[in-house]
């Protein structure tokens, strides 16, 4: 196939605009065919200079625009369910940014809709599965030389949170990444969660429970702990250490240039996740496009999106009520057989 | 004072013999005056070549030997209480290896006995307070540039545990170090503890709950988590990261020579805590001897020893019964005023 | 421009095949239009599965194939001069792998030919200028907070050299990268070179002067030292430390996952430069394609290719004859004004 | 022997006062018996609070003071020769700070004087041989798993030089350490030296050739390069990488606490060599005292001191005249047989 894949991008905010740039300039074999955003000025701006693109206020209009062969959903979470169903109705392959659908019931409706189609059409945007560090970490675990994995220690820190961030969003938005990464790395479902609240940082907005310390248990008895701290001030930091029976493996201390000056030897800590995971986003979208061009859909499934929702929702209950909350997911459909992640 | 300090060493096992060597050859201003061990052959062997030393089967005989001006207790834990009381009765300064007295009731009796004396005679052997890394970590926290400390993440791994090690000893023997270090670094008491049990490593003896993951809460709302894994196989590893409101600081990744060969760039991981903390032991005993020669007693007190016992005992209850256990210590006597640690 | 750029790739060996894969699958906006290799079976294999590509034995035939808008030269060095001149004759933009033209006289003919065209058509494949580490190192130097750069310390090690490698090729093929990187980082010409020969490694083929230690002097008095060791056995390693008046900056110790097992904490050392510089090659070709689509040519020029040749040739004379050899380049044409690199 | 060793310390400046403190408080089995300094006020101040010490203006008077069993020479270099000869005349074991005797002729007279005694009495203060990092580096080399050592890359940086520092002193005072370390690590004599002068740092005093880049050749064909930069501003840094036939090993990047704050992850760089090598000095003096108490003298010999002088003097000639200077030492007396270092 030499024809490039025409993609409709839904949402022209920060993430949508970045994906438009990526599809236009970075990813081979794709082009932006349509952009939809209720704010059409924003959509036009993001689409500026791209030949043959159409701009729409409505998502469905973009899906029906000429030349559209796939959909990338980067609109706000509440719009995801309708957009996914609209794509399914048209048989269009989808890449849906996370959280796929924030509430578990809605997420389950997506799973059921895809099951009715009888084949996978959607991939969920858990880009860490495409990060070079995570990929190498997983490769080390799969080599088997560390034995079974017993624990994951995770750190997820942002320099500062947006003003609209709530205590629940530390789980739903931030830890969601660790939920998916843990399921993927361990190949096991998370079955219980306990959210602990250390004293709040004076650097966080009044009333925000920040940081939090979250402990997950897996079906096989492994533990996953996550420090999430979205106003850590120092910079964006994502670390993961897997502890196995025979050793451990750690990622996230990768350093750029080491600068020695004025009494310290220092590496820069990036301020933004876009810097840290830029390559992962590129790899994710590239793999998605390449798969579609070969008639396939892969990567994290809507089941993975649902699983993250249901675990995050249990986490939110633990955050609110305290104590350990068990996770009670629906039965896993045959379409998504083959282990967690 | 030019006269060196004569020390009676109680216990000539692994740790006692090491302290005998240290007092004889490393520490300025001290000499080994007496050695006691029920196994007198072992005591003689440890004392071989030291001029003017007497060897005894009974601890009290060693305390009464000529030239003894201080006592170093390195006998097994159950013998500590009697030895401490005997030293107190004679007004001799003591350095007592940890755990000071394993059960909280016995530990409290020691606190009460010293309070009756009205002055401190004993120092407890929490040598991490003398480790260069911990000292620098504490200095960074005290500078204040990281704001208040919110969390400590700790890792404590041994290559393999001795055959007699029980699941409880992971708390009482190993995590005891983190209990003291956390109290000292944060200047706060630990008020609750939850012990979690990930699936046991196939590399640990049958029936041993290894690793464990322990979460402490402090009086001020900080969290301290500790991975303890005494059959991790890879080597001895002690790490500590303090997370403050404005940044974090980490120790324990110090590396010796970096050897690049055969496709890997590697630093050696020591197999033994004696290697890792050799300098801390030297500094501890040196400071103890120097203080006595100036007529003082400092360092970790018997209150610190008691506090570690009572927190560890709560941890053992959590390990056995599951769930969160609150720590309920006795009231802190005036003699030990001035904050935790 | 929505039409993708058709590229003729000359040479279908290891490097050529990798560029074909890159143009076909990784780089947005380009496609492989023609492949030439005297071994047409090899060319066919590298072009397999690419729609609309033509395969040729002769380079010029590929340049004349339909749809060709640019040329990527990845044939052996001796074929570069003719290929560059043929591209110039057709007004086609070129990306030429290094060494551009191995002998300075031939390299100068290319410079003169492009000067006669009156505009830049060619970019030389010094991909380190596109490596994230080098780019960040250069950014640190340009910020000015280290003051003027006084020295560069470089290490360039390969696990093993190909069987045809000669002592001269350590300079011409390997150190060529450091020659260009030094000119680019310092913005100065290299004016003298001294090649020192430590005792040869027993791990290198009999008669090969491996390792070598090369010291360059710049026009402004900076020093650049390079350890080149092409049979170092341990793996592929490229490091660079810049020492300024106020501090230093170092790249090349970037580590992937840190694996702690069996008494060592180790990061993998890659065996191959393709792994280490994969992203740099992608970025280089992407930038080249994007520039052409905007009607521009940038990146390292044929003057940079000539400069590397003339410095490397002086290095070879130093290797052979011993002692310090001064570099005597032709005058820099106006077309390439603006500092070294 | 229970009697502690009485030491006469010659020189009560920065280094002498530090050794007095060390002998008084840190090193087991020794005491300061006498202190000599032409500035007797300074001597008194350094000796304050030490029982039984006598203070002298003249070195010889200190050697003859009661209770003196050994001599530590920490006076300025020009006074070393007379002090060493005076100690030899009295049969007193000596630890002499480096440079032993700055000029090779004087150093050779010391060698000859000790040879006439027929036994070793003096140890030279090359403390790096007692640094944990160097010891481990040497251990790795001696294990043999890196094959023969082919090159050493060394960095020696001070934050700032004292006002009296001359260009020659970068070789005689600073690189002297690398000269001894290289001889010791490689077990080979240095046979030629080339001193290169990069452009001088604007941060160095006017007229000081700082930094310098020094290349040594060994008898067996190994190369040793040293960056010496005594006004590097950033802090005190000593690094050494040994490159062998099968791999490499590096020390000097050891880091204390890693502090992540305000966009950087940084380790402190010490400002002073006393911090970096504090443990090495302790170990050096402890080993010297312990050896004397067992009737022995070991460590770096006066031959090592002479060798450093003669190599440094060749370096100074290269610095002044430019070019490569060969080192032409006297014949090595039988008393110092057994390889360089």
UniProtKB/TrEMBL annotation, chains A, B, C, D:
Protein name as catalogued: Inositol 2-dehydrogenase
GO BP term, example: inositol catabolic process
Residue ranges of domain Gfo/Idh/MocA-like oxidoreductase N-terminal in the record: 6-124
GO molecular function, one term: nucleotide binding
EC number: 1.1.1.18
PANTHER family: INOSITOL 2-DEHYDROGENASE, PTHR43593
Quaternary structure and interacting proteins, as annotated: Homotetramer.
Sequence similarity: Belongs to the Gfo/Idh/MocA family.
Domain GFO/IDH/MocA-like oxidoreductase: 134-250
Role summary: Involved in the oxidation of myo-inositol (MI) to 2-keto-myo-inositol (2KMI or 2-inosose).
This protein's UniProt keywords: NAD, Oxidoreductase
Catalytic activity: myo-inositol + NAD(+) = scyllo-inosose + NADH + H(+)
Pfam families assigned to the protein according to its UniProt record, in alphabetical order: GFO_IDH_MocA (PF01408), GFO_IDH_MocA_C3 (PF22725)
């Amino acid at each position: 196939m030499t024809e490039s894949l025409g993609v409709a991008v839904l949402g022209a905010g920060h993430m949508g605009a970045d994906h438009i740039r990526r599809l236009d300039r970075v990813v081979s074999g794709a082009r932006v065919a349509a952009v939809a955003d209720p704010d059409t000025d924003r959509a036009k701006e993001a689409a500026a200079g791209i030949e043959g693109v159409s701009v729409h206020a409505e998502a469905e209009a973009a899906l029906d625009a000429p030349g559209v062969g796939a959909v990338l959903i980067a609109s706000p979470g509440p719009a995801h369910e309708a957009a996914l169903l609209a794509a399914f109705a048209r048989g269009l392959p989808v890449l849906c940014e996370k959280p796929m659908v924030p509430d578990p019931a809605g997420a389950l409706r997506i799973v059921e809709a895809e099951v009715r189609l009888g084949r996978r059409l959607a991939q969920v945007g858990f880009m860490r599965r495409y990060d070079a560090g995570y990929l190498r970490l997983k490769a080390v675990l799969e080599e088997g030389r560390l034995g079974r994995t017993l624990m994951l220690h995770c750190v997820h820190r942002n320099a500062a949170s947006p003003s609209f961030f709530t205590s629940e969003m530390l789980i739903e938005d931030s830890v969601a990444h660790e939920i998916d990464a843990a399921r993927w790395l361990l190949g096991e479902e998370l079955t219980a969660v306990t959210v602990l609240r250390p004293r709040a940082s004076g650097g966080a907005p009044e009333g925000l429970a920040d940081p939090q310390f979250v402990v997950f248990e897996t079906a096989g008895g492994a533990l996953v702990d996550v420090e999430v701290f979205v106003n850590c001030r120092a910079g964006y930091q994502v670390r993961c250490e897997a502890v196995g029976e025979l050793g451990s493996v750690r990622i996230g201390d990768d350093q750029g240039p080491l600068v020695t000056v004025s009494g310290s030897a220092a590496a820069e800590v990036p301020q933004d996740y876009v810097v840290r995971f830029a390559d992962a986003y590129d790899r994710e979208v590239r793999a998605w496009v390449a798969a579609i061009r070969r008639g396939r859909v892969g990567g994290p499934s809507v089941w993975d999106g649902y699983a993250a929702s249901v675990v995050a929702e249990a986490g939110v209950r633990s955050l609110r009520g305290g104590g350990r909350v068990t996770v009670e997911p629906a039965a896993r459909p045959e379409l998504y057989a083959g282990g967690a992640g």
